[in-house]
Write a structure and sequence with these properties.
With 306 residues, the chain is of the alpha+beta class. Helices cover 30% and strands 21% of the residues. The strands form three sheets. Strands 3-4-5-6-7-8 form a six-stranded mixed beta sheet, with helices on both faces. Strands 10-9-11-13-12 form a five-stranded mixed beta sheet, sandwiched between helices. A two-stranded antiparallel ribbon has the order 1-2. The protein is globular, with a radius of gyration of 18 Å.
Length: 306
């Protein structure tokens, strides 16, 4: 039996870990636990759910892959004792079964080639406000600085469907292999829906979006959620002219979107890099489109509004 490639093993473990992190977040909500909110900055919150989810993801992956660089959004101190019940050791079998069809260029990858970017709870503000369907868990996997695989978990997907409904969704993708856990939908051909931040937008940011002639602006929380709206056919593009996002916000969504023929860059059309030493902030905004061939159309109109 051939050895399973390192990248496949990392993705398989990341899927299992993201599922467990979703359980951790949901349990905090259902148990009515104190969220222990910390204000990191303007519109930048951290809760016990963020901290517990990151500990679950990062410690689990560190134990399995001690030589791989893992960068999480939250800064956890020594006082944050490890909850061993949150630690995952298993790997997702569906991912492992795809090992033989991994793209050739991703089969020969070493530990030092990989950097994992973790957002343990994207859309924390919406989470605190009880807008749970905006929440995602993001595990992005970069190889030599390029986002090549991603896991996006929605721990509250379908949570309003009733007591007997199955809650939660896990989506994973490897560029060149495909997307799993969701079926991409085509956005309305007679509309142009653009998704953007729920926060109050500056006149310049609104002018940038309006230059792209939207028929509707869909304001939601979370970079992961916005990119899933493109995949689910609810929006055509995601535009942010601000520096609100960081690498852990975009690495997983970028890989997932690219795997289905979409595209994510900064607002000027330059691809982001995900090396361990890169600046954490995405200072040049975000442009994501459901279809890569439409990306230049948006760039032209954004540039015309600058």
């Amino acid at each position: 039996m051939c050895e399973v490639p390192l990248l496949t093993r990392v993705v398989a473990s990341s899927v299992s870990v993201a599922i467990r992190a979703g359980d951790v977040i949901r349990n905090i909500v259902t148990e009515g636990a104190d969220l222990k909110i910390v204000h990191k900055g303007v519109n930048d919150l951290q809760t016990q759910a963020d901290r517990s989810s990151q500990q679950c993801i990062v410690v689990s992956l560190q134990r399995q892959f001690p030589k791989i660089t893992i960068i999480g959004e939250e800064q956890l101190g020594l006082a944050d004792a490890v909850n061993e019940s949150h630690i995952v050791t298993e790997s997702d079998l569906e991912v492992l079964e795809k090992a033989s069809v991994l793209p050739d260029e991703l089969k020969l990858v070493d530990d030092e080639d990989i950097c994992i970017w973790v957002d343990p709870l994207d859309a924390t503000t919406e989470f605190v406000q009880g807008i749970f369907d905006h929440v995602t868990i993001l595990v992005g996997i970069a190889v030599r600085g390029k986002a090549v695989a991603g896991v996006v978990a929605q721990p509250f997907y379908n949570y309003t469907a009733g007591p007997n409904a199955s809650v939660g969704r896990i989506i994973w993708a490897i560029v060149g292999l495909g997307l799993f856990g969701a079926v991409p939908e085509r956005p309305p051909p007679d509309q142009r829906v653009i998704t953007a931040t729920r926060s109050r937008m500056s006149p310049a940011a609104l002018r940038t979006i309006n230059a792209c002639e939207p028929t509707k602006i869909l304001q939601v929380g979370g970079a992961g959620h916005k990119v899933l709206l493109l995949i689910d056919g609810k929006a055509h593009a995601y535009i942010s002219a601000s520096s609100a996002c960081s690498k852990w916000d975009t690495c997983a969504p970028e890989a997932v979107l690219h795997a289905v023929g979409g595209k994510l860059t900064n607002i000027n059309g330059t691809s982001y890099q995900y090396h361990p030493g890169v600046e954490r902030k995405n200072r040049s905004g975000t442009l994501a489109t459901a279809y890569a061939h439409e990306h230049d159309w948006y760039l032209e109109r954004i540039n015309s509004a600058a």
